[in-house]
Amino acid sequence: MRDDPLFILIALVMLGVVGILLFGIGSFAKGGAFSRKWSNKAMQWRIGAQFVAIVLILLFVYIRRGG
C-alpha cells in the first residue's frame, strides 16, 4: 500500500491539513493584527484541504474495493 501513488498523495494532503491547522492555531495564539489577518483565512484553507483529503480517501476506498 505504501507504494501506491494515491496513498502517498493522501498522506501528503493529510500532512498539509496538519500544517495548516498548526499555522491557524499559532496565529490564534499570537493574537493582534496578525491573528485578525490570518486566523480565519487559515481555518478556511484547512476546511478546503480536509475536503480534498476526504474525497481522495473515498476515491482510494472505492478503487481498492473494485468499484
From TrEMBL:
InterPro entries, sorted: Hypoxia_induced_domain
**What keywords would UniProt list here?**
Membrane, Transmembrane, Transmembrane helix
The record's section on Pfam families has: HIG_1_N (PF04588)
Q: Name all HIG1 domain ranges.
A: 1-67
Q: Where are the transmembrane segments?
A: 6-25, 45-63
Which superkingdom does the taxonomy of this entry point to? Bacteria
Protein name in the entry: Hypoxia induced protein conserved protein
Organism, by scientific name, is Sagittula stellata (strain ATCC 700073 / DSM 11524 / E-37)
